[in-house]
Amino acid sequence: MDMDSDAVAKAENTLREFWAEMYTWETEALPQSDKVGTDAVEPVARALQVICERFLVPKDRKYGRLFFVDGKPRCTNIGFPPEYNPQLETILGHEVKDKKTIVINTELANHLNKTLKTPQRYQLVLSGDVFRVSKKERFSAAKNKWVLLHL
Description:
CATH class: Alpha Beta
Number of domains: 1
């Protein structure tokens, strides 16, 4: 399968931008997560919706951070430490699956002990001239296999 170096670089940059946007969203949403009521929740969920529309493959997700109630966005899974952190995640390499699909292998350092690292991988798909994240997996040492994570 062929994908030129410019396309690979574009996919990697898209992933880094996604991490940065999600990190900002997580750190800004965390203080709001203990507030209750629609007025507190909707702005946080709308901000997540914008990120999802920009970076994720558009598809119906039964599980994940973003969901809709009566057509209004809601979100879940706001916690500490942030799941996405561009300072702690490093791209290790990539595997081109076909002319429109690339899997980028990464490792995420633990926020308390940076020598502890977890292998992860992201699948990105080229849609027009834009790469979008379609899947995220983490290697589970306990299960000795890749485990799908909800975006």
